[in-house]
Amino acid sequence: MYAKGFAYGVGEHSNKRWGLRFGEGVMSGKRAMLMVTTGGWDSHYGPRGINGPMEDLLFPINHGVLHYPGFDVLPPFLVYRTSKVDEPRYAELEKQLSARLDTLATTEPIAFRKQNFGDYEIPSMTLRSDLAPNGSGFGVHVSKR
């Protein structure tokens, strides 16, 4: 799927556009969602958790793999402490996953900024200085809408 000329390395590369990627490309109009399980507690993946925020951990996949060829990336379905799943919790997780799958078509995608739509300086591919002016890191590449 990620072959040069299909998912990357395609489209105009100029001072106005920089290829068909990050919001454009062969997967535009399609949706993708990660389903992730962990052994750790949800607090371990929070803003101050030992493992770091789940949004940061998944950013390279959600943004760099899925959004890159144009997918609309949905928030992930997460299951924590999988080694402690008993029958009642399994039944609850099954209901949650079923409900989530039923809403895939209407779930709001992560608002990743699109490369060729004015948020980035081309060809340097840096976020415009007036957008998230005091921010840095992965979070600046998600629009607050």
What does this structure look like?
The chain has 145 residues and is α/β, with parallel strands linked by helices. The chain has one domain: Flavodoxin domain (Rossmann fold). The chain contains 3 helices and 6 strands, in the order ββαββααββ. The protein has helices spanning 54-67, 87-102, 115-119, and strands at residues 31-32, 35-37, 72-73, 77-79, 120-121, 126-127. It has a two-stranded parallel ribbon with strand order 1-3. The radius of gyration is 18 Å and the shape is globular.
Quick summary:
The protein is α/β, with parallel strands linked by helices and 145 residues long.
Features:
single chain, 145 residues, alpha/beta, two-stranded parallel ribbon, 6 strands, 10% strand
DSSP strand tally: 6
The secondary-structure class comes to alpha/beta
Strand content: 5-15%
Q: Order of strands across the biggest sheet?
A: 1-3
Apparent shape? globular
The domain count comes to 1
Rg from alpha-carbon coordinates: 18 Å
Mean pLDDT: 94
CATH topology: Rossmann fold
**Helical content band:** 10-25%
CATH superfamily: Flavodoxin domain
Q: Judging by the overall fold, what is the CATH architecture? A: 3-Layer(aba) Sandwich
Unreliable runs: none
CATH class categorisation: Alpha Beta
The major sheet is characterized as:
2 strands, parallel
The end-to-end span amounts to: 30 Å
Number of helices: 3
The run of helices and strands is EEHEEHHEE
